[in-house]
Amino acid sequence: MNTVHNICINAGYNSISIMKASIKVKLLTGVYMLQTTRSKFSNKHISASCPLYGSEDEDKIHFILKCPNLVSTRKYYIDELKSMLYEIDHDVSVNIVNTDELFIQLILDVTSESMHTNGISVVNSTIQHRGINERILFCITQRKM
Asked: Considering the entire predicted model, what is its pTM?
């Protein structure tokens, strides 16, 4: 407790960097308004279906990794992230990339304990330095608006 999270420490000072950090924090804490959140708080009066795609619920995994209407927006960054991971440790990377929850965690917070226990601590500074994870989230959230 009483420590500042790495997302905030690494956010930077310009407005776009702060907006990117804000998106990450909201997604991590579950307060980013995805359709599943809207549906839950409206007692299911609002549909949980993705407004861009329609046939799947819009949760974190769908929004960040799976939505077909966001493929072109995120593909470059996801491919760049996968390539970097494979260069560092192919075996560990295959496990993370093929496990949606771990891949989402890597994108949202590479510094989390679950990333270290899954052998990805080596890439922490590289991912943060390149800002790949922030660019993925920023692009898809801008496209959604």
From this structure: 0.76
